[in-house]
Write a structure and sequence with these properties.
Helix content is 63%, strand content 3%. It is mainly alpha-helical. It has three domains: 76 residues, no CATH class; 221 residues, no CATH class; 119 residues, no CATH class. It has a two-stranded antiparallel sheet with strand order 1-2. A two-stranded antiparallel sheet has the order 3-4. A hairpin with an 8-residue loop joins strand 1 and strand 2. The protein is globular, with a radius of gyration of 25 Å.
């Protein structure tokens, strides 16, 4: 149970945002308002008001940043992307919550039938969704997208992109200090400061030691944050001036050591795949790698629904690496199977909120399934329509960026922008395993979309002959004048 300090920190964060916007450039203020809240504000602490989404470490900082930008800084914020495809995905993501509410008005009852007599005891129920819940559902989707739109406008420049990459590196270096302390003494900071532990203690014990968590929802979230920081630090090392490269090299080696102490196999594999790519691969191949990861993230749920994933082969390979991790992976797959069967009952718009998408005991209502991956949570709650719109809004900026960079690989900021694309793509892959879709992810996606849109606007329009033929200009023969 959070103590008074936890609620005080959450309540005071809008004031922190105000100070940041008063003293820093708008790009830096936006980054640290969202990223700082993710790293510092306690999890599982919220102000639950009627008819509106809960105000927690994700929604409150985003809303505070938007209000400060619009009403205090008097800056206009555009909520309408340039392309028709992004507009369709946006409208589907926001308004798709309406049919989800309308198709889930029936309550879910839990019944106890003793013996053979025709007597039924109602032991519990999940309420049906009401028309009033439409406002809350739509508001939740809009609040989730606030970092996306703010980043699209203010972090899509060369300076904004570099600020975001550098912020990942600096935040990880600072955050590594409490993480290393928790590796030594066990995860204690959230207990000492906020009065509670935010997850299962057993999951913090690995390989005879402890996994750090600090103030994040889970130790896996912390390990994955260090993966994003490693990717950013590798990009800074590659494109830094020679006089500063030794600093980023030291930071890179240090963060690899910290990530190893986090004891997360998936995060270590991500780092082993990404860091060499960022350091040595040409930008075109880095972008192709990002697109390939996005395709994997998009295709996996479809293959799981069609039972085309080689689950047994994957588990066999995992057992060859680590038996404990293989058991954890098998547990995830088993839960996915149950949740997919539940989602198949309402495949288009899902089951909505109140945990209606979960597997429960038919008599007691106790939860029997644990949804880990973001994709299965979204698929069960909002169906295929909501899933496609959400993942489309994350993947589309990668495709638009790849198209915009085809003739702009020589731009000085291209390397850092592609590093952000890799960070977004690996986050989409990790969302298959964990619910790691956080405001920072939306901020990266929005920055990439805005950058791609800026490049497209800056590109010169083709001549009429180029537009019609697709080839370069044709030199017409000069008319010879006879004297």
């Amino acid at each position: 149970m959070p103590n008074a300090v936890a609620y005080l920190v959450l309540m005071a964060w809008p004031a922190v945002c105000l100070v940041l916007f008063q003293r820093l450039r708008i790009e830096l203020a936006l980054i640290w308002s969202i990223l700082g809240a993710y790293l510092i504000v306690p999890s599982l602490t919220e102000f639950d008001l009627p008819l509106v989404p809960a105000m927690d470490k994700y929604t409150l900082p985003s809303l505070a940043a938007l209000l400060i930008v619009v009403f205090l800084l008097r800056r206009k914020v555009s909520f309408w992307p340039d392309g028709w495809a992004m507009r369709f995905l946006l409208m589907g993501f926001v308004l798709g919550a309406i049919p989800t509410v309308l198709t889930n008005s029936d309550p879910i009852l839990f019944e106890l039938m003793p013996g053979s007599e025709p007597i039924v005891f109602i032991t519990g129920a999940l309420p049906g969704l009401r028309l009033l819940d439409i406002f809350s559902a739509v508001s939740t989707q809009i609040l989730m997208l606030i970092p996306f739109f703010l980043a699209r406008q203010f972090l899509s420049t060369e300076k904004g992109g570099r600020d975001l990459v550098l912020a990942f590196c600096l935040a990880a270096l600072v955050y590594s200090l409490p993480a290393l302390i928790e590796v030594r003494i066990s995860p204690q900071f959230n207990i000492m400061i906020y009065g509670f532990f935010q997850h299962s203690w057993e999951q913090m014990i690995r390989q005879g030691g402890f996994r750090p968590i600090v103030f994040l929802p889970h130790a896996l979230w912390l390990a994955f944050f260090f993966v994003t920081a490693l990717c950013a630090t590798a990009a800074l090392l590659r494109y830094a001036p020679n006089a500063h490269r030794h600093r980023f090299f030291a930071a890179l080696v240090y963060l690899i050591f910290v990530l190893w102490l986090c004891k997360s196999l998936a995060s270590m594999l991500y780092a082993l795949a990404l860091v060499p790519v960022v350091l040595f691969a040409p930008l075109r191949w880095q972008m192709r790698f990002a697109l390939a990861m996005a395709v994997v993230a998009l295709a996996y749920p479809m293959l799981r629904n069609l039972h085309l994933m080689p689950i047994d082969l994957i588990l066999e390979k995992a057992r060859a690496i680590n038996v404990d991790r293989a058991q954890s992976l098998e547990f995830r797959f088993r839960n996915e199977e149950m949740l997919l069967e539940r989602a198949a009952e309402k495949p288009l718009f899902g089951w909505g909120s109140w945990g209606r998408n979960l597997i429960r005991d038919p008599e007691t209502g106790d939860i029997l399934s644990i949804p880990d991956g973001r994709w299965i949570i979204m698929f069960g709650s909002h169906g295929w329509f909501g899933y496609i719109c959400q993942m489309g809004m994350l993947a589309a900026p990668l495709l638009l960026l790849a198209r915009a960079l085809r003739r702009n690989w020589d731009r000085p900021e291209a390397g850092l922008v592609v590093a952000l694309a890799l960070i977004l793509a690996v986050t989409m892959v990790d969302m298959l395993l964990n619910d790691t879709l956080v405001p920072v992810t939306w901020m990266v996606s929005g920055a990439l979309l805005g950058y791609a849109e800026r490049l497209r606007r800056a590109a010169p329009d083709p001549t009429p002959r180029q537009r019609s033929s697709g080839r370069g200009p044709v030199a017409l023969p000069r008319r010879r004048t006879v004297m």
